[in-house]
Please model this.
Amino acid sequence: MQQHIGKLNEAQQQPVLQKEGPMIIIAGAGSGKTRVLTIRIAWLMHQGVDPFNILALTFTNKAAREMKNRIAEIVGSNEAKNLWMGTFHSVFARILRAEADKLGYPSNFTIYDTQDSVRLITAIIKEMQLDKDVYKPKQVYGRISSYKNNLITVKAYFNNPELLEADAMSKKPRLGEIYANYVERCFKSGAMDFDDLLLKTNELLNTHPEVLQKYQNRFKYILVDEYQDTNHSQYLIVRALSDRFQNICVVGDDAQSIYAFRGANINNILNFQKDYPDAKLYRLEQNYRSTKNIVEAANSIIDKNKVKLDKVVWTANDFGPKIKVHRSVTDAEEGRFVAATIWETKMNQQLNNGHFAILYRTNAQSRAMEDALRKRDIPYRIYGGLSFYQRKEIKDVLCYLRLVINPKDEEALVRVINFPARGIGDTTVEKLTIAANHYKRSIFEVMENIDKIDLKLNSGTKNKLKDFVTMIRSFQVIEEKHDAFYIADHVTKKTGLVQELKKDATPEGIARIENIEELLNGIKDFTEGQKEVADARGSLSEFLEDVALATDLDKDTGDDDRVALMTIHLAKGLEFPHVFVVGMEEDLFPSAMSMNTRAELEEERRLFYVALTRAEQQAYLTYAQSRYRWGKLTDSEPSRFIEEIDDQYLEYLTPEESNYRFRPMLNTDIFGDVDKSKLRLSKPVSSAPPKWVTENQPKPPADIRRLKPVGTKAPGGGNLFDDKLTVGNIVMHERFGKGEITGLEGVGADRKAEIKFEVGGIKKLLLRFARLEII
Ligand code: ATP
Ligand code: MG
Model:
């Protein structure tokens, strides 16, 4: 043990060795926060703390698993097995199952995923005959989710005049009713959604003092990673559980708080010392992950944020190569650049695919990257997006399996009752739903009593319903005696799912069958694995629990060597030698939806900080001058975040091209590999800023001045800044052609012009990128 502690630096050792009492570790990226948590747990066990008494909450289940493995290497796997570790959702789902009866839930409750929740809300909106363009199901789900995460129950909602008024003002006066219906329907189906797992845990701990006491006594030591991203509901759980022993250790970085849009509350970090007046604050300052160049560039970015805690991050690592900035004409070309660079770097430096990550702001950006990687035969893996378990054929199988465990599960039932087709039509399902709502029972219970309820169904239909009930019941009998694999294999055969898919001989149809095979293989692996875990038997319900709470990262077994593609949000806590942050463009990153307030922009900037600090050796920032968005070719400007980094940390890979202008007429060539020499005008334009720019440079605030020598660069060439332009000027834009300035707003680097172009209509452009010429 001592040897592991000896490898930590002095500042890291202190929190590890403080056995009792509350503590908070605030430190920048790569400073060893997660490592400190890991070693601390091992050390506690070494000091004789029973692993059953330790609860560690992580951002993904994969992170928990890795931590556990690491601890097992130090203290032995038998001991480590008994640690309570996982995400908030998985740990508290487990506790809720054990205590479900106290909340009136069955212990085999289903966990609805987002798809299930949104489908149910859609159905409710339809039943209530509301306009789904006003009550947009996904938006409604978002509202309900945020109520739940702030512990606003249906009752609390209706008692809160402000909320009622806010929803009425936003033309959704019946939102509360939808909320109430949704909660009731979930309850009737024996189902909890993701947010319920936290809300119900709070309810359980608040209303059952004996339960609270039990878990307070059990979790004598609580540790939380990524504390900056906990929401209110999670915060309350941690506070309640740690109240008795106060042995709570949280680690986080306010500069990496990136889930405010989902209700994460940075105040949880800021107020920690208020909640625990005895709390000890530790800071770690040395970064072990990245080169000096990356660490300093990242520092200079986060410096631009106003809301932040003062922190120092430095590294003893080498300076390393500069951050490479690459511009391309289209997103397809951007993809080709990334793939080619990975290919070459791999060859030159003898690296694996797993040493590279491509990070983006939105999932939609993965397509161009995928195309390019495929062309070069570079294996990759996409995290996030539509996960394996949400593919139609997979979800169909899972819904049958869910019904076996919990026949009340309405979403599962509605999905498969007539798939494969067995002559139970929509009208019948509608009648069943109405009856179920009326009797406040599940649809399955109505089906079981179909002879006793008059739904005006003919006897043929009734028999079909009875057959379905018998089929599910027969699966249940088998399930009791067998493991998850056995029953899953049986269900796919007996329901006719596979036979149905076999009718489709197209490559897509065959792929679907292969997916089901992959699912069965996965279940087999799971079953075998579970048999080695204490208290587990590899049952179907264990498997379904695992699936419901799996994040995409969790499926990564790490055996195959692939380039990782994911959104920046998902990359939190991870590290890679080479990182590409792609789509560095205004309106994409920072996102167009996040530029309304300073707070939103600062969250985007934190996201950029997270992205850059994932890189160990080399970071790339790439942007395209045009890309397909929502099926339309859109022009884009480089992200302001590139400009925010001091030039000394950057290397422009495409410098000579900024000396040339692209001929607007040739833009259509961007569809393929064009000969770029054709796109160039013969006369290069100087990239040095004109004299009047250097002379009239607006003075940046003091802290920025330190980082950024005045007049160094304006990516994309020097430009007309502000005071020369007025409304009414006729200007020329290199791509959009001639237009008239109809408005000006903002100052300095944010100065924008609204321009009415002769072709293409009105556009708003950032002047520092727009390269306008007055004519
Ligand atoms: P993030 O904020 O991104 O989650 P973090 O603060 O949790 O980062 P870790 O992931 O724990 O940082 O550590 C970053 C890297 O530095 C890891 O590869 C870790 O093994 C390594 N590291 C941490 N502390 C030390 C140390 N004292 N000596 C050597 N390597 C270290
Ligand atoms: Mg970490």
Q: What stands out?
A: The chain has a mean pLDDT of 87. The chain has 33 helices and 21 strands.
